[in-house]
Inverse folding.
């Protein structure tokens, strides 16, 4: 069973190495491998220095985003006004995007939509603005001379609605729109979202359309949650198109209801609302129905990664400011290979000492400890390698130290177990029974203490950020593996071993020698039964005199029903003699009925 | 010697040899209190020495260097300010980044000049700036929230598992004791606190509770039937449990400490300052103290709490009265709960039958004459 798990783990890694970008070694974190350092410079719309609090807030948001994409142990610091983000290894474009984009999302009505190329020929917007009640006739676009600065003054004092094109499309907006060339990638970089009160001229990220948008109607802050998934089909199945599902809070829901109610009655293109992310229109769906449940679906050329990335960004909120990437450079490991090498050497020395100590303490049983540790280490290595491929887990030096510490906690489970078995042997049980009963007790202790560790790991993993999260992950992982190994390796192995002659008879080197465990020489075992064990110094292994070895080949004794048959003939005779001089009232129970004729004679004497 | 240790373990288990750990709790409490007070003093007087990750510091970037020898930069900074432990990283193809703790303006100029000289570049190629803490307040704050939530949950879990809140309280007390002393020792040593150190402290948090739970599980098992018997008091039964787990505690702590000691040795002696040394010191002290506290602090404290319970109190008084009566004396005064007193009665496994003598034998059937 455990073998299957190991084979499955390594099989998966092998498959990953062969067909994907996995590797046979786990990825290392920033301190051991180095990585990419990105310096972000905050850009505010008015060019002022951003307030200190905003930078801290932005660091928090970036850290959450990076953490949620896996346990990657990124390092984020401020340097003056700038933010320095150090990511381990060679981060993917998706990860870089998580760091760079501010993810300011807002919902604006579409006022105009057109081909992405500049439209210089027709400066008049009236042809693209459909009749919209009375004021539709009102737009009186003054054809603007090319050399003059177009006026940015609205032609009306007050807009009738956010879809009021006549108010929002000022000559300047129109001129900007006309001049905008969305086929030029430079115009599709995105950026700040612009004044929420005014119209916005922008492109779609793929450069297939350009838009004039009305003022912001629903702010991104009213998004209460976001998730990504495949678009469901009306029939109940799913298409293979990735979408991001968002839900609004109560204010956002009512605002969104109002918008969809109004837009539903409009004609194209005014019946569209645009989802604007960092200044670009990622989707501008047409409103066919009033959406009042506060749920919206964003579609627009997503891949699985980009949909998940956007949902992740929306969940943690937008960065309060927009950033420019100032530099992106490779940095070396902060600790260097020397530390890792020495750390591993130290770990090996420590392990060797553990092996020596457990052999010394537990003799052959120490081998079980060592092999269990080896199994545990193998699985840990496999799981970490697998997770560093699938989850972006990275091993840092504190992580390595944590793993070395885990040796202690894992070994403790075995020690607790072995000590319980010895306790049971001291009570006079045979090995198979001692293993069974010791296991029942040790299991409780191991589970209780590991639960506490797991609790610590889960709580810290969920609540903490940065390095603490990585630590919690390692702790939780090793705790789970500890339970797994004890249940599926150590205990079965001991059960098997207890049936062998070497351990079952308590060989001196087995570590389970009953005489060394101080099972007393002669003791009363209940119901007129006396057990004699030669003292620890005795070199005789006489089966007739050591009941433990006789019992060793028998069925385990169950609790509360001592096996009377364990008496040697000599003892039974002694007991019978005793009984004849001092008659006892032997309790009539199944045990005594099953017993040998001698005890029957004892009863006979009495009657 | 192994035989001696095993024999010792046997004696501890059967109660033939027994250390009156619970009874002498005043001694342990005193030792712990002194240690905690000392640690608190160390925490106040030299105090912890937070590193760059917590306080921010100065950063120098040397551009256009020909050889990227990192040791040279470390030596250079140390020649200006010997107490520094600079961190050197290569950036891009030909730049070095040197991070130090916060330097004064004159020191910054000195370091700039020295670095430029050492790497044979113009002074203009060395830029300096102040960097913020990478382990900012938000990280600490979230970690603290996590710890508080963990402690609350663990109290609830332990209360449910042991069916007694006193055990949870005793475990928490031991935990704080371990943490304070570990942090105190770290402050006394005066090494820089790095994120690795904090990770070490967090590990101690887990280890301390873990170790205490293992000991308490034995206490719980041993004392489950306390009120149904009238041979030993709760304290004596708990003491037997501690004695019985002593071998486990020693074995576990040795096995856990060996690798940590190896890292500490390699980290401190071979490598000098660094992550390994920081984490290993925190772990070494913490595990040592954690083992001590689960045996000598948590259980005695738990017993002290339990003896306040009316049922246990009455039971203890009854047994002590019975013992006094059996000894012929009638000197029992209910106030003296005798544990601290001279009459230490070690509880132990019953040597089957021996305790009752003839009374253990089956009774003769009375009808037959």
């Amino acid at each position: 069973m455990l073998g299957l798990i190991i084979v499955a783990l390594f099989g998966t890694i092998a498959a990953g190495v062969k067909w994907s970008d996995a590797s046979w070694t786990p990825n290392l974190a920033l301190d051991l491998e180095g990585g990419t350092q990105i310096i972000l410079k905050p850009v505010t719309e008015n060019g002022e220095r951003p307030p200190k609090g905003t930078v801290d807030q932005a660091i928090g948001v970036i850290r959450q985003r990076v953490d949620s994409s896996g346990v990657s142990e990124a390092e984020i610091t401020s340097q003056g006004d700038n933010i320095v983000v150090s990511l381990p290894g060679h981060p993917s474009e998706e990860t870089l995007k998580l760091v760079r984009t501010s993810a300011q999302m807002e919902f604006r009505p579409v006022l105009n939509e057109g081909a992405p190329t500049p439209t210089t020929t027709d400066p008049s917007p009236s042809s693209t603005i459909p009749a919209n009640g009375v004021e539709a006739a009102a737009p009186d676009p003054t054809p603007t001379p090319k050399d003059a600065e177009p006026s940015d003054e609205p032609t009306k004092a007050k807009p009738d609605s956010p879809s009021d094109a006549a108010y929002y499309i000022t000559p300047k907006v129109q001129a900007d729109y006309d001049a905008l060339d969305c086929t030029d990638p430079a115009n599709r970089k995105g950026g700040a979202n612009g004044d929420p009160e005014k119209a916005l001229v922008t492109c779609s990220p793929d450069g297939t359309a350009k838009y004039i948008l009305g003022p912001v109607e629903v702010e991104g802050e009213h998004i209460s949650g976001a998730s990504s998934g495949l678009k469901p089909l009306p029939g109940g199945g799913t298409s293979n198109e990735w979408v991001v599902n968002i839900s609004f809070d109560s204010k956002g829901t009512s605002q969104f209801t109002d918008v969809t109610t109004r837009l539903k009655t409009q004609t194209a293109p005014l019946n569209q609302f645009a989802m604007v992310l960092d200044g670009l229109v990622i989707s501008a769906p047409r409103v066919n129905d009033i959406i009042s449940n506060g749920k919206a679906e964003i579609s627009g050329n997503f891949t699985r990664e980009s949909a998940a990335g956007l949902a992740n960004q929306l969940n943690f909120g937008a960065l309060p400011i927009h950033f420019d990437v100032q530099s992106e450079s490779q940095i070396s490991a902060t600790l260097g290979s020397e530390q890792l090498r020495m750390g591993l050497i130290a770990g090996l020395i420590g392990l060797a000492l553990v092996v020596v100590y457990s052999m010394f303490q537990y003799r052959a049983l120490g081998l079980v400890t060592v092999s269990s540790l080896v199994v545990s280490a193998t699985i840990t290595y496999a799981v970490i390698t697998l997770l560093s491929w699938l989850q972006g887990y990275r091993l840092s030096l504190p992580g390595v130290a944590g793993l070395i510490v885990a040796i202690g906690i894992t070994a403790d489970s075995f020690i607790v177990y072995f000590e319980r078995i010895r306790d049971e042997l001291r009570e006079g049980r045979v090995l198979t029974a001692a293993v069974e009963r010791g296991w029942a007790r040790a299991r409780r202790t191991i589970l209780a203490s590991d639960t506490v560790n797991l609790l610590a790991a889960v709580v810290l993993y969920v609540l903490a950020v940065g390095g603490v999260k990585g630590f919690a992950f390692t702790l939780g992982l090793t705790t789970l593996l500890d339970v797994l190994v004890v249940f599926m390796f150590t205990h079965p192995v001991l059960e098997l071993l207890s049936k062998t002659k070497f351990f079952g008879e308590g060989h001196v080197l087995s570590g389970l020698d009953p005489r060394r465990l101080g099972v007393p020489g002669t003791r009363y075992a209940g119901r007129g039964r006396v057990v004699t064990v030669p003292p620890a110094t005795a070199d005789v292994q006489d089966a007739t005199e050591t009941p433990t070895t006789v019992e060793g080949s028998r069925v385990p004794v169950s609790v509360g029903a001592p096996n009377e048959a364990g008496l040697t003939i000599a003892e039974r005779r002694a007991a019978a003699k005793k009984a004849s001089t001092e008659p006892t009232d032997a309790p009539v129970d199944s045990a005594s009925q099953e017993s040998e004729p001698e005890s029957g004679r004892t009863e006979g004497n009495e009657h | 010697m192994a035989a001696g240790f095993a024999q010792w373990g046997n004696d501890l288990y059967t109660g033939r040899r027994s250390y009156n750990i619970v009874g002498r709790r005043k001694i342990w409490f005193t030792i712990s209190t002194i240690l905690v007070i000392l640690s608190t003093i160390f925490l106040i007087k030299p105090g912890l020495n937070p590193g760059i990750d917590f306080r921010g510091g100065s950063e120098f970037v040397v551009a256009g260097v020909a050889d990227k020898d990192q040791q040279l930069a470390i030596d250079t900074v140390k020649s200006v300010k010997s107490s520094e432990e600079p961190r050197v990283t290569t950036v891009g193809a030909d730049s070095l980044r040197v991070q130090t703790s916060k330097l004064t303006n004159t020191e910054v100029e000195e370091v700039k000049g020295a670095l430029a000289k050492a790497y044979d570049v113009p002074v203009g190629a060395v830029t300096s700036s102040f960097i913020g803490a990478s382990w900012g307040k938000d990280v600490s704050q979230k970690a603290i929230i996590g710890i508080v939530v963990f402690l609350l949950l663990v109290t609830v879990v332990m209360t449910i598992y042991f069916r007694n809140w006193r055990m949870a309280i005793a475990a928490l007390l031991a935990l704080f004791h371990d943490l304070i002393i570990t942090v105190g020792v770290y402050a006394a040593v005066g090494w820089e606190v790095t994120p690795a150190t904090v990770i070490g402290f967090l590990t101690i948090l887990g280890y301390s509770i873990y170790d205490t739970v293992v000991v308490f599980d034995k206490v719980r098992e041993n004392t489950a039937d306390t009120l149904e018997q009238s041979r030993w008091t709760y304290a004596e039964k708990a003491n037997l449990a501690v004695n019985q787990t002593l071998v486990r505690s020693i074995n576990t702590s040795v096995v856990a400490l060996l690798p940590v000691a190896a890292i500490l040795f390699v980290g401190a002696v071979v490598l000098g300052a660094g992550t390994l040394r920081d984490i290993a010191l925190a772990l070494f002290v913490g595990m040592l103290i954690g083992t001590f506290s689960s045996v000598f602090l948590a259980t005695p404290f738990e017993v002290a709490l339990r003896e306040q319970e009316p049922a246990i109190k009455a039971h203890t008084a009854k047994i002590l009265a019975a013992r006094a009566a059996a000894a012929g004396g009638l000197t029992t005064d209910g106030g003296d709960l005798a544990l601290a007193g001279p009459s230490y009665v070690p509880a132990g496994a019953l040597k089957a039958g021996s305790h009752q003598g003839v009374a253990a034998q089956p009774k003769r059937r009375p009808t037959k004459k």
Summary: DSSP finds eleven helices and six strands in chain B. Confidence is low (pLDDT under 50) at residues 330-342 of chain B. Residues 18-50+135-313 of chain B form a domain with the Multidrug efflux transporter AcrB transmembrane fold fold (CATH 1.20.1640.10).
